[in-house]
Amino acid sequence: RPKQFHVVREFKSELCIVAPKSVLEIDRARLEKIQPMLLGDSCFFGQAVVQLSASLGIASRGFEYLHSIETILHCVSVGIGYSVMPRCLMEHHGLKAEVSIHPYAGKKNFSFYKVCLLSRKNSKLVREISSYL
Q1: Within 10 A of 3 (CB to CB), how many other CB atoms are there?
Q2: I need a surface site. Which of 38, 76, 77, 106 has the fewest CB within 10 A?
Q3: What is the CA radius of gyration of the chain?
Q4: What are all long-range contacts of 59-62, with beta carbons under 8 Å and residues at least 24 apart?
C-alpha cells in the first residue's frame, strides 16, 4: 500500500471461470473451441486466464485483449470465449444468467481495492464514490 494512496474500500473475493451457458463442465475439449478473453497480461484476472489455458494444455493461438469487463462478459454470453472474473462481481452482475460460472482451481482468494490519491481523500467526489461503494 503506497503511502500516496488512500484505500476507499477493499473487496475480498475469489476467482471463478466464466464460460458460455452451454459449457457445463470446464475441460480442454470445450474451452479450446472458444477464445480466451482478458483485459491484459498485467491484469491479475488476465494472468489467471493465461494460467488456466496453460493448465488445460490449450495451445496459445492468441488471446483477445478487450477494453472492459462488460465487453468480455457480452462476448462470453454469446459463446465467443471464456474468462476469469471475481466471484463477487458475477454474483450481482446483470449477465449472470447468460453465462455459466465455474470454480477456479489453484490460488483463487484475493483482495482488490478502490483507491484514490491521499491528497483527494476528503474531496466531494471521493466521499460520493465511498458512499456508493
Answers
A1: 6
A2: 106
A3: 17
A4: 59/32
Cα separation, 13 vs 112, in Å, equals: 8
At 77-113, the pLDDT tens digits run: 999 999 999 898 899 899 999 999 999 987 677 777 7
Beta bridge partners of residue 125, listed in sequence order: none
Low-confidence ranges of the chain (pLDDT < 50): none
* Secondary structure element (H or E) that encloses residue 110, with its range: strand 109-117
d(CA 30, CA 22): 9
Instruction: Find the DSSP H helices in 1-133.
Output: 28-31, 44-55, 69-77, 87-90, 124-132
Could you give the CA distance from residue 56 to residue 97 in angstroms, rounded to a whole number?
25
- Measured CA angle at 81 (ends 76, 84), to 5 deg: 75
Do residues 5 and 116 touch, judged by C-beta distance below 8 A? yes
